[in-house]
Amino acid sequence: MAKVLVQEAPFDAGAETAALSAGRADVGGIASFLGICRGDDGLAAMVLEHYPGMTERAIARIAAEAEQRWPLTGCTVIHRVGRILPGEPIVLVLTASAHRAAALESCAFLIDWLKTRAPFWKREEFAAGTHRWVEARAEDDAAAARWAAPDA
Amino acid sequence: MRVLYFAWVRQKVGVAEEEVAPPAEVRDVAALVRWLAERSPGHAAAFADPRQLRAAVNQDFATPDHPIAANDEVAFFPPVTGG
């Protein structure tokens, strides 16, 4: 059962990573993806909106799919919402397994599907006071399609 | 029926959510889009190009032909951009 959190507060990636192997001897590796807010084009802040309730369900479903496909000993997904400044972390995906391949592959799978199947929307705020909604990218759809679902 | 709007769809409609009672012939998501578009200029702007919209029924992604019922929670939003 994955740990899934959607929150405004920053998270402690080190503590979350340590928690996946604490008190157990069957974990051979932990893969991580830490998504960070870039400051492209004079970006002042990123504001992340989500669909409370559906977001947590969607992430839990994606994590359950990962746990079905790979032999994981643990999985943590934390996604921040609200106002995030350049340089600040946005999302953390951790996967733990006995062996590295399962951890690395499932981590890539989780972030690829998260980007296309979890209801988050990013709005960019610029120093000049303008703002724009980030548009979905075809590259993200292609990345997610690499892991084609049996039911898709 | 509870209808929720997110991101620029919410901004164009002007509200985050509303209770609506569409007539019985509005049976699926596509019909609801056409019906909602008549409610105000803001709705019309938000629903002008259904290809730009995604929908969820009771918090699961739904296609335009997905059936809807009086007690459903239906949401409209742009393609997602998280991660």
Automatic annotation (TrEMBL), chain A:
It comes from the Bacteria. Pfam families: MoaE (PF02391). CDD domains: MoaE. GO terms for molecular function: molybdopterin synthase activity. Its EC number is 2.8.1.12. It catalyses: 2 [molybdopterin-synthase sulfur-carrier protein]-C-terminal-Gly-aminoethanethioate + cyclic pyranopterin phosphate + H2O = molybdopterin + 2 [molybdopterin-synthase sulfur-carrier protein]-C-terminal Gly-Gly + 2 H(+). It is an enzyme of class 2 (transferase). SUPFAM superfamilies: Molybdopterin synthase subunit MoaE. The keyword Iron-sulfur does not apply. Pathway: Cofactor biosynthesis; molybdopterin biosynthesis. PANTHER family: MOLYBDOPTERIN SYNTHASE RELATED. Belongs to the MoaE family. Heterotetramer of 2 MoaD subunits and 2 MoaE subunits. Also stable as homodimer. The enzyme changes between these two forms during catalysis. This is Molybdopterin synthase catalytic subunit. The lineage of its organism: Bacteria, Pseudomonadati, Pseudomonadota, Alphaproteobacteria, Acetobacterales.
UniProtKB/TrEMBL annotation, chain B:
Gene3D superfamilies: 3.10.20.30. One of its GO terms (molecular function) is nucleotide binding. It holds the Pfam family ThiS. The keyword Nucleotide-binding applies. It comes from the Bacteria. Keywords: Nucleotide-binding. CDD domains: Ubl_MoaD. GO terms for biological process: Mo-molybdopterin cofactor biosynthetic process. InterPro entries: Beta-grasp_dom_sf, MOCS2A, Mopterin_synth/thiamin_S_b, ThiS/MoaD-like. Signal peptide: none annotated. GO terms for cellular component: molybdopterin adenylyltransferase complex. Belongs to the MoaD family. NCBIfam families: moaD. This is Molybdopterin synthase sulfur carrier subunit. It comes from Neoroseomonas eburnea.
